[in-house]
Design goal:
It contains one helix and 24 strands. The chain is mainly beta. It has two domains: 6-39 and 46-135, Elongation Factor Tu (Ef-tu), domain 3 (Beta Barrel), CATH 2.40.30.200; 140-282, Sandwich (Jelly Rolls).
């Protein structure tokens, strides 16, 4: 995609397509905020609460510029791409503007196609509106794989003799996840066995996820921090194995910038690892 292009429902809006546009509202706006401020009972003001963004509404105004013989097909294609869905599934709305390409997940809630005397000449104005229940816009996909920490090899033997041999240092077990967005990203974490009581921690937020279970070689535990689910081998629910020292799964996020991530099972061996995938998140 190049700057000025929008993709939705299989259509590309913007040059060089017949669907030109001139104004886009709501994409770069800060959505409305729900405030949990609580009024102070005996003094002015309120106790500050956490603000939460509401849904994002995006409005596009443009015109169809097509040869007269093709304008009818262009209108029908736009109608088809913006038809009312039969389910609650959202579609990707991807917009390239100002040097970056971001995606939100939306449903089309309004379509206006204005037929005037110029319609027969292939000039038709249109307005589209989308609602994004999740107001976050997502950028580049990123990933990080953290191998399980190795065991030390050898060490000091007593009585000691010089030169001293301290053994090989522990390797693995840590990595850095970078979110180049402006709001917290929610990773999907996949832990592969063999591992006992796997633990993953974000040292920036101080939050930990630990699971009271044993993974054998070939097992995988998938933690979706957006959906709040924990699945063993893609199907079996293992959310109940979360230990008391853990944060809620949905609270484990990657704030903007760099996060130091640790993977520490109680016992493990090669090829155990924790793999994180996420996308830069923008509000």
């Amino acid at each position: 995609m190049v700057d000025g292009q929008i993709t939705w429902g299989g259509l590309t809006l913007g040059r060089p397509s017949v669907y030109r546009w001139r104004q886009l509202d709501g994409w770069e706006d800060l959505p409305g905020l729900d405030s949990s401020d609580e009024a102070r009972p005996s003094r002015h003001g309120a106790w500050a609460g956490r603000p939460l963004a509401e849904s994002r509404t995006v409005t596009l105004e443009g015109s169809i510029r097509a040869p007269a013989a093709e304008v009818g097909a262009a209108v029908r294609a736009l109608r088809s791409a913006t038809a009312v869905a039969d389910d609650a599934d959202l579609q990707p709305l991807t917009i390239a503007a100002l040097g970056e390409t971001l995606t939100a997940y939306a449903r089309c809630t309004q379509r206006t196609i204005s037929l005037t005397r110029d319609a027969r000449l292939g000039h038709i104005r249109y307005t589209l509106q989308w609602v994004c229940p999740d107001p976050t816009r997502y950028g580049a996909e990123r990933s990080l794989t953290i191998p399980a920490p190795s065991q030390t090899v050898d060490g000091l033997d007593y009585p000691v003799s010089y030169p001293l041999d301290y053994g090989a240092p522990i390797t693995g077990g840590a990595g850095t996840a970078i979110n180049n967005g402006s709001t917290s990203a929610r990773p999907v974490i996949t832990i592969t066995g063999p591992a006992s009581t796997p633990l993953i921690a974000n040292q920036i937020t101080g939050l930990t996820l630990e699971f009271a279970l044993d993974l054998v070689e070939g097992d995988s535990l998938t933690i979706d921090t957006d959906a709040g689910t924990v699945r063993l081998n893609g199907s079996a629910d293992r959310l109940y194995t979360l230990t008391a020292r853990s944060a809620p799964v949905e609270a484990f996020t990657l704030p903007p910038g760099a996060s130091s991530i640790r993977y520490r099972p109680e016992s493990t061996s090669t090829p155990s690892a924790a793999a994180l995938t996420w996308r830069d998140a923008h509000l």
